[in-house]
Design goal:
111 residues; mainly alpha
Protein backbone atom coordinates (compact mmCIF):
# COMPACT_ATOMS: atom_id res chain seq x y z
CA UNK A 1 0.00 0.00 0.00
CA UNK A 2 1.35 3.40 -0.96
CA UNK A 3 1.53 6.43 1.31
CA UNK A 4 -1.35 8.01 -0.64
CA UNK A 5 -3.61 4.99 -0.16
CA UNK A 6 -2.61 4.74 3.49
CA UNK A 7 -3.37 8.41 4.12
CA UNK A 8 -6.79 8.09 2.49
CA UNK A 9 -7.68 4.97 4.47
CA UNK A 10 -6.41 6.46 7.75
CA UNK A 11 -8.54 9.57 7.27
CA UNK A 12 -11.50 7.49 6.12
CA UNK A 13 -11.28 5.47 9.33
CA UNK A 14 -11.02 8.67 11.36
CA UNK A 15 -14.26 10.00 9.87
CA UNK A 16 -16.15 6.76 10.49
CA UNK A 17 -15.48 4.23 7.74
CA UNK A 18 -15.29 1.28 10.14
CA UNK A 19 -18.60 2.24 11.72
CA UNK A 20 -20.20 2.63 8.29
CA UNK A 21 -18.95 -0.80 7.25
CA UNK A 22 -20.26 -2.35 10.49
CA UNK A 23 -23.64 -0.65 10.05
CA UNK A 24 -23.86 -1.80 6.44
CA UNK A 25 -22.96 -5.36 7.43
CA UNK A 26 -25.72 -5.33 10.06
CA UNK A 27 -28.18 -4.14 7.41
CA UNK A 28 -27.12 -6.90 5.05
CA UNK A 29 -27.46 -9.50 7.79
CA UNK A 30 -30.96 -8.21 8.61
CA UNK A 31 -31.94 -8.35 4.94
CA UNK A 32 -30.66 -11.90 4.61
CA UNK A 33 -32.53 -12.97 7.76
CA UNK A 34 -35.76 -11.43 6.46
CA UNK A 35 -35.61 -13.02 3.01
CA UNK A 36 -38.30 -15.56 2.30
CA UNK A 37 -37.06 -19.07 1.60
CA UNK A 38 -38.54 -19.02 -1.89
CA UNK A 39 -36.58 -19.83 -5.03
CA UNK A 40 -36.89 -16.25 -6.25
CA UNK A 41 -34.89 -14.99 -3.27
CA UNK A 42 -31.85 -17.14 -4.05
CA UNK A 43 -30.29 -14.64 -6.47
CA UNK A 44 -30.89 -11.74 -4.10
CA UNK A 45 -29.48 -13.74 -1.16
CA UNK A 46 -26.37 -14.58 -3.20
CA UNK A 47 -25.90 -10.91 -4.07
CA UNK A 48 -26.22 -9.89 -0.42
CA UNK A 49 -23.74 -12.56 0.62
CA UNK A 50 -21.27 -11.31 -2.01
CA UNK A 51 -21.67 -7.78 -0.66
CA UNK A 52 -21.04 -9.04 2.86
CA UNK A 53 -17.82 -10.78 1.77
CA UNK A 54 -16.67 -7.62 -0.06
CA UNK A 55 -17.27 -5.47 3.02
CA UNK A 56 -15.26 -7.77 5.25
CA UNK A 57 -12.18 -7.02 3.13
CA UNK A 58 -13.08 -3.77 1.34
CA UNK A 59 -11.24 -2.71 -1.78
CA UNK A 60 -10.21 0.89 -2.40
CA UNK A 61 -13.22 1.15 -4.71
CA UNK A 62 -15.60 0.00 -1.97
CA UNK A 63 -13.95 2.30 0.56
CA UNK A 64 -14.19 5.25 -1.84
CA UNK A 65 -17.88 4.57 -2.48
CA UNK A 66 -18.60 4.35 1.24
CA UNK A 67 -16.71 7.59 1.93
CA UNK A 68 -18.80 9.38 -0.71
CA UNK A 69 -21.95 8.03 0.94
CA UNK A 70 -20.74 9.14 4.37
CA UNK A 71 -19.95 12.64 3.08
CA UNK A 72 -23.35 12.87 1.39
CA UNK A 73 -24.99 12.17 4.75
CA UNK A 74 -22.74 14.60 6.62
CA UNK A 75 -21.11 17.23 4.39
CA UNK A 76 -18.94 18.41 7.28
CA UNK A 77 -16.82 15.28 6.70
CA UNK A 78 -15.90 16.33 3.17
CA UNK A 79 -13.19 18.90 4.01
CA UNK A 80 -11.42 16.35 6.19
CA UNK A 81 -11.06 13.81 3.37
CA UNK A 82 -11.08 15.92 0.18
CA UNK A 83 -7.30 16.40 -0.24
CA UNK A 84 -6.47 12.75 0.49
CA UNK A 85 -9.30 11.65 -1.82
CA UNK A 86 -7.99 13.94 -4.59
CA UNK A 87 -4.53 12.42 -4.24
CA UNK A 88 -6.03 8.93 -4.33
CA UNK A 89 -8.06 9.74 -7.47
CA UNK A 90 -4.94 11.12 -9.13
CA UNK A 91 -3.05 7.91 -8.40
CA UNK A 92 -6.05 5.68 -9.25
CA UNK A 93 -7.94 7.30 -12.15
CA UNK A 94 -10.64 4.61 -11.93
CA UNK A 95 -11.65 6.21 -8.60
CA UNK A 96 -11.92 9.75 -10.01
CA UNK A 97 -15.64 9.28 -10.62
CA UNK A 98 -16.15 8.72 -6.89
CA UNK A 99 -14.09 11.80 -6.03
CA UNK A 100 -16.28 13.86 -8.37
CA UNK A 101 -19.32 12.71 -6.37
CA UNK A 102 -18.10 14.29 -3.12
CA UNK A 103 -20.58 16.92 -2.01
CA UNK A 104 -19.59 20.51 -1.59
CA UNK A 105 -18.72 21.46 1.94
CA UNK A 106 -21.42 23.17 3.91
CA UNK A 107 -20.86 26.91 3.83
CA UNK A 108 -20.17 28.41 7.21
CA UNK A 109 -21.65 31.76 7.96
CA UNK A 110 -19.69 34.27 9.97
CA UNK A 111 -21.77 35.23 12.96
Amino acid sequence: MSRIEGEFLTLALEIGLAETIAETLRGIDRSIAELPSKDGAVRYRRRLEEQRVALRNPSLRTSAALVVSMCAKDTSLTPRIRRAFANLAERHPELAWFYAQLPEEALRRAG
